[in-house]
Amino acid sequence: MTERIPLVDYLVLGDEPHLSAHECTSCGARFFDRRNACAGCEGTEFKDVGIAREGILRAFTIVSFAAPGVPVPFVAGVIDCDGTSVRANVINVEPDADHVTLGMPVRFATYVVGTDSAGVEAIGFGFEPVEGSTR
Amino acid sequence: MSEAVWILGIHMTKFGKNPDKDTVDLAAEATTGALADGGVRMKDMQILAAGNLMGAGLGIGQALQKQVGQTGIPVYNVSNACATGATALRTAIMAVKAGEADMGLAVGVEKLAGAGLLAGGSRSGDKDTWTPSGRYGAVAPVDGRIGTETMPGVFAQIGMEYGHKYGGTSFELFARISEKNHAHSTLNPLAAYQKRMSVEDIMNDVMIAYPNTRPMCSANCDGAAAAVVVSDSKLKTLSREQQARAVKVAASVLTTDPWQESCQVLPDVNTLTRNAATQAYEQAGVGPADLDLVELHDCFATAELVHYDNLMLCEPGGAVAFFESGAPWRDGSTPVNVSGGLQSKGHPIAATGIANVWEVCHHLRGEAGDRQIEGARVGLAHVIGLGSACGVHILERAA
Description:
Chain A is mainly β. Chain A has no helices and 10 strands. A 6-stranded mixed sheet of chain A has the order 1-10-9-6-7-8, with no helix packed on it. In chain A, strands 2, 3, 4 and 5 form a 4-stranded antiparallel sheet that branches. In chain B, a hairpin with a 3-residue loop joins strand 10 and strand 11 (389-397). In chain B, helix 3 crosses helix 13 and helix 9 packs across helix 10 (301-310). Strand 6 of chain A pairs antiparallel with strand 5 of chain B, so a sheet runs across the interface.
C-alpha cells in the first residue's frame, strides 16, 4: 500500500479523513496551527477536536491571477463548519460564479497533491458541493 | 488632558511611475514640500517618524536626513503593512502629545511601480521528499492549495463575506464602487490614473480574483507624503497665516485586530476598524453624520463596501443601501474617496496613510481646486494594513 502523508498536520487521514483543531480548554477558541497560547484568553491548555465534515460556503473568490506554479483558476473560500471557520479551496466544481455561490452547502473531500521521490503520496483537502443540492 | 496637536504643513508627491527618482528622492520631495507648506525647517523638527515598507530595516529616516538635514533628532523607522504611513504620523503625534516634542515630522514613501502581486506573489516549488515544516506542519506550499494568499483574493472574500451576511452584493455592485472612484480621480492631478471608466469597462477588464478585476485593485505606484505636526502652544507662537492654515488633529487612533472566531482563517478587517472609528469619534466629539468627506482604505472595491459599515457611515448591514443611495459620490451626503482612492490615485503603501490625510487637509483648507468639497470642516482618513493594523485620523478645519 502506498505510504501517505497529510499536506498539513491538522488533516487527519484514515477511514474518515477530517480536520482537527486545537481547542482552548478555557474559552473554546479553536486554532489550526501550533500554539504558544490562546489568542482569545491567554490560556495554555488545548485539546484536539474533530471539525465537522459538512459546512456552508461563507465567502469565496475565484483566483485567476496567482504566483507562477499555482494552477488557475481555482476557488478559495471560507467554510463555516458547524461554527468553526475553515480556510480551503472549493474543489470538484466548475470555477465560475454560476457554479459557486455564497451559502452553498459543501462537504469535506481529499485528493492526492503529488508523490515524492520516495513514493510517498501527499494528501490535500478541499470542500466540494453537496450532490443533489439545488444551489 | 494633553494639549491639541495640529497639522502645520503637509505635502504629497504626484503618484505614478518615477523611474528617475529613488525612494530617498521621493521622501525628500515630500519632506521639503511639507516643511515649506508649514513655513518651517528641519532644524525646527524634534522627532522624525519614517515609513518605507519595502525597504523596512534599511533606515529610510536616516537616509532622508542625509539629504535634507542631519540635525541629530531621534528617528523612528516604522513598519505596519499598509498602515505604515498612518503609524508614522501617529508616532509623531504621540511624541507631541507626550510633551517630548513641540514639532515633529512624519514621512511615508514607497517605490512600487511595476510590482505585481504583493503577497502570494511567489511560491517555491515542491521538494523531493515531503517534510513537514512550519506552524501547520505543511509538507508543501499551501498558497493555491488551501485558499489564497494573494491580496486581491483575500479582500475579495472579505467583500463576499459581507454579501453572505447581509445580501445585496454582486459583481456589478462592486464594479460600480470602482466606477465611482475612477470618476472621482479625473479631478485629481496627483492621481496615478485619471481615467473615467464605465461599469462595463471595469467588469470586462482582466479578472484578478473574482469579483475584483484589475481596475478594482489598488494601483501599485511610486509616491511619498509627509506631514509636520505641532503642539497647540507652539502653534500659538507662529504667524497668523500659519495658524489659519493649520488643521486640527481631532482624533488619532491606531488599533490591531482583537481575537474573533474566524480572524486567523480570513483576516478580520472589520472589528479593528470599527474599534478605531468608535475611539476616534469619541476623541473628536463628532459622529459619522458630521463628516464632510472620508478617505477610506479602498485597496480593493470589495474592501470599500465593508468599510462604509465599519466606519459607521451607515447602519449595520446597510453598506449596499448606503452606496445605492449615492451617498459616497462627491455630490452625495458623505463623499468617500474624492481623491480617486487607492484604485486610481494609487497605493504606494507607506505613503498612503499620510496622503489620505493630505487629501482631507486640502479640502479643509479650501485648497482642493476642481475637486473641492465646498465648506468642508471635518474629515476622516482611514487605512488598514493586513496583519492587522488600522489607523483612523479625524481632522478639523481651524475655527
